[in-house]
Write a structure and sequence with these properties.
Elements (H helix, E strand, L loop, with lengths): L6 E6 L7 E8 L6 E5 L17 E8 L7 E5 L2 E5 L6 E8 L9 E3 L2 E4 L1 H4 L2 E2 L7 E4 L8 E4 L3 E3 L2 E4 L2 H5 L3 E4 L3 E7 L2 E8 L8 H17 L8 E9 L5 E4 L3 E7 L13 H9 L26 H18 L5 H16 L3 H4 L2 H6 L17 H19 L6 H11 L11 H10 L2 H9 L8 H4 L5 E9 L8 E7 L2 E7 L4 H5 L6 E5 L2 E2 L5 H5 L6 E8 L2 E8 L7 E9 L9
Parallel strand pairs: 1-11, 17-18, 18-20
Antiparallel strand pairs: 1-2, 2-7, 3-6, 3-10, 4-7, 5-6, 8-9, 9-15, 11-14, 12-15, 13-14, 16-17, 19-20, 21-28, 22-23, 23-24, 24-25, 24-26, 26-27
Helix pairs in contact: 3-4, 4-5, 5-9, 9-12, 10-11, 11-12
Length: about 575
């Protein structure tokens, strides 16, 4: 029997159509009277509906002879086409591609940047069919960066739609490209944009050390033969990256590539994305196994997929000798302190924050509800690592748990059930882990750091200190803007909130004096019973509030300090 023809995608562009791709798809019709074709509503790595179909226009369909076929749109991102009497089905549409980040598609005169997940439609129910991608207008002298297998210039193949959309592609007349072989894996490094560093040797060596460290974390298993780091360098402030099975896509400020030294600022985000080779691209929640792209798919495990990955980002740099022992513990102490002082982590557990990723862009979500499963999961990852070590007297750590999960689930061709991590942790670490998950993963309890870290080679201090300056009123994060200070975070129930200030307001005056002229002398002399008047602006409207300061209203913060009593702690594994 002759194998079915692959679903063929052709992407072209015209100079007269700015920021626009023209997509043509040729496929055999689905069984029945019609073929449904859809564009993903979200992408793996960003668990929020992004509704890429909003960028689609000029949709049309024909049979193999060019006769138009009847079609209609049946959902916001699904088109239903009447099947031809015989032969293949041809579809065409335009896609507006002006969003430049690590998960979108973009085009201009000097850059073709394709993320197939938001650009290419799929035949509903046929995600496992082979695919090919053709770029007929790709100039012969342009270079290409992608993990897709290449048949010829501008011609690529994929085993199925999942592989196709998991491989972003960058093409341009100039790409700086280097390779290095590391522990049997060929690493391809691609830069688009201005690279000031004369040599990439040190950067490649650092990437290799990251690969070697993470390979050991996962028990020596590195499930690929080649990997692509694709960096788009842009002249504005952005740090965005997306993981894929055999590559990672980065959009970063070009100033980070000005020198060999500045390139080190790319190592943390690179280590994070490479860790996803195992954690989420292969070992992933059952809810995402296999990927489906039409609607929300819920899992409470993003504290694992992203937060634990974030914990291992810093740990990787430490073990690779890129980050000093002192800096690792300083950063971790600061990050844990920030979590403990953020109201959202008292309201929502790490499991809830994972589910609520789909709500993160809602206009109805108040600022003090905006917790992150990255931060919550990093705290869980660190504490879980410590508790496993404590409960087993150093025989088991988080590395051991990840290796066990990888063998139990990924290597057996299945995803992690919602209680899978908890059950594995209890099996490896003992019964105390049941309470740990109940309190700090499913629950919202504030971790007692001294208690949880007792018996480990760590000195732990937790201190309560009053917030300085504007923090005394509960205004804990302000940003200079024009003549005032924009409120970016305030403490719920604080004096600032009671007087009517909200996140987004711009503070202008205190007792008719410009707020930028109020220095620390005013705050250090502030006493109970003192009164003053605040003025602020909300969306162009002037507002005013009378403040009566009471010592009972003073806001305190938690500061956590971690110091290893054995400098080798966490380095040996």
């Amino acid at each position: 029997m002759q194998a079915a023809s692959p679903i063929s995608y052709r992407i072209s562009w015209e100079p007269s159509l700015r920021y626009t791709y023209i997509v043509e798809i040729v496929l055999t019709p689905s069984k029945g009277k019609y073929t449904d074709i859809a564009l993903p509503a979200w992408r793996p790595g960003r668990y929020v509906l992004q509704n890429y179909a909003a960028a689609v226009s000029h949709f049309s369909a024909w049979d193999a002879k060019g006769v138009p076929l009847s079609w209609r749109k049946v959902t916001k991102d699904t088109w239903r086409i009447q099947n031809p009497a015989k032969g293949s089905l041809r579809i065409s549409y335009r896609f507006y591609a002006r969003q430049l980040d690590a998960g979108s598609s973009y085009i201009n005169e000097e850059l073709v940047y394709i993320n197939p997940i938001n650009l290419l439609m799929y035949a509903v129910g046929r995600l496992e069919e082979a695919c090919e991608l053709v770029l007929p207008k790709l100039p012969l002298n342009w270079k290409v960066a992608t993990a897709l297998p290449q048949i010829a210039h501008g011609h690529f193949r994929a085993r199925d739609y999942h592989e196709l959309v998991d491989c972003p592609l960058v093409a341009a007349p100039v790409l700086r490209q280097e390779t290095i072989t590391c522990d049997g894996v060929k690493l391809y490094v691609h830069f688009w944009g201005e690279v000031g560093a004369k040599s990439l040797t040190g950067f490649l060596s650092d990437l290799c050390r990251i690969v070697q460290v993470q390979k050991r974390i996962w028990g020596g298993k590195l499930p690929l033969k080649e990997y692509h780091f694709i960096y788009l360098l842009v002249p504005f402030s952005i740090r965005h990256a997306v993981e894929h099975e055999n590559c990672a896509m980065f959009v970063l400020p070009q100033e980070g590539a000005n020198s060999e030294e500045s390139l080190k600022s790319f190592l943390g985000i690179s280590a994070h994305e490479f860790f996803h080779v195992w954690n989420v691209k292969r070992l992933r929640p059952a809810a995402l196994w296999p990927y489906r792209y039409d609607k929300e798919y819920y899992t409470s495990l993003h504290w694992l997929t992203e937060g634990v990955t974030d914990y291992y980002t810093s740990l990787t740099l430490l073990r690779a000798g890129i980050l000093s022992v002192e800096e690792f513990w300083r950063r971790l102490s600061l990050e844990l302190s920030q979590i403990e002082n953020s109201f959202a982590y008292r309201l929502f557990s790490p499991a809830e924050l994972s589910i609520d990723s789909w709500l993160s862009t809602s206009i109805y979500r108040p600022p003090h509800f905006q917790g992150s499963f990255y931060a919550a999961g990093k705290r869980v990852g660190f504490l879980l690592d410590m508790v496993l070590r404590r409960e087993t007297k150093g025989k088991v750590c988080l590395d051991s748990l990840l290796q066990y999960l990888y063998e139990l689930y990924y290597e057996r061709g299945r995803g992690i059930p919602e209680d899978g991590v908890e059950k594995a942790a209890i099996q490896l670490g003992g019964p105390f882990l049941k309470k740990f998950f109940a309190d700090y993963v499913w629950g919202r309890e504030a971790p007692p750091y001294e208690e949880l870290l007792a018996g480990l080679p760590l000195e732990v201090r937790c201190e309560q200190k009053p917030f300085p300056d504007w923090g005394k009123l509960g205004l804990v994060r302000l940003r200079s803007e024009g003549e005032g200070l924009r409120v970016e975070e305030l403490v719920p129930g604080s004096l600032a909130e009671k007087v009517g200030i909200e996140v987004g307001d711009i503070l202008l005056t205190l007792n008719e004096q410009n707020v930028k002229q109020i220095d620390s002398t005013f705050w250090s002399s502030l006493v109970a019973g003192q009164e003053f008047i605040l003025g602020w602006n909300r969306q162009g409207f002037p507002m005013e509030g009378h403040v009566y300061f009471s010592s009972q209203d003073e806001v305190f913060r938690t500061e956590i300090y971690l110091f290893p009593t054995d400098r080798r702690f966490l380095l040996e594994y």
